[in-house]
Amino acid sequence: MTIQTQETERRRRHATARRGRHRGTAASTPEVFSRGFEALGRLAVQGVQVSARATDLSTGEVLFSVDDHVVMPTASIGKVLLLVEVAARLQSRQLSPLAQLDRSPQDIAGESGIWQHLQVPALPVADLAALVGATSDNLATNVLLRRVGLEAVSARTESLGLTRTALLDLVRDHRGPDDAPQLSVGSANELTWLFSALARGEVVDAATSRQVISWLSLNSDFSLVSSAFGLDPHSHRHPEHGILLVNKTGTDAGVRSEVGVLRGPRAGVTYAVSTYFDDTALPARLAVIDGMRTVGLDLLEYVF
């Protein structure tokens, strides 16, 4: 059962907002996103499951959507929900940013992240959250999850009114029949709401939202939609050519997903693009990445 809160009501109003007009005259016509629509359409014809949505950050106008209600595997994007819970506990002083958390053998997970390559056996909570934001660090994710608990993250997610988006499990190198089939799932509709609400300071409270945004602004993965924006993945916390981005990506076998807030000289936009595909051949993967980059080109044109 979804807990009805002020956040739930804000999300409902956002989802049903009337279409507005972009302040840059005709930039909000469908032609602006024609390349992205065509690219995603080609992927769908090739058997790729696609879900996408983009909304104007100021007006809430839906700029384009493709099956945005569908629940999709989103890999590491669900880690944002963990960061929300950690940030909320820091603000309420239930957790100290300097509390040292040790890593243990059961926390070990390969792939993304840098802590697994470092010698230090323990790090403070705030540093672990920064590693999750910057490199989607799997080991840091599991250590933080062990501290706050997956049930607490799920309860926080529900309290925000999210019913199609969830962090389902800790990070595992191998998923057995008794494990959740995916690390996380989400709908493009809810993910764009979540990032819009974070940008407006409306997730839990303004301080919590700012903290989550600060961690996510460290993200160094610009390999998908955001590859079109021309930003330095290792140094982009201040506007470059009037462009500012906060994003989170999710990558797994057959999964490529990205959600973010892109601000430019003319407008701001919140976007989410998720794909699920047969990842048995490199050309299929490259086609998905190219299609997501094409959506990014349309988003850049809208804000710039």
From TrEMBL:
GO terms for molecular function: beta-lactamase activity. Its EC number is 3.5.2.6. It is an enzyme of class 3 (hydrolase). The keyword Hydrolase applies. Residues 1-28 are annotated as: Disordered. It holds the Pfam family Beta-lactamase2. InterPro entries: Beta-lactam/transpept-like, Beta-lactam_cat, Beta-lactam_class-A. Residues 54-275 form the Beta-lactamase class A catalytic domain. It comes from the Bacteria. GO terms for biological process: beta-lactam antibiotic catabolic process; response to antibiotic. Residues 11-24 have a biased composition (Basic residues). Keywords: Hydrolase. This is Beta-lactamase class A. The lineage of its organism: Bacteria, Bacillati, Actinomycetota, Actinomycetes, Micrococcales.
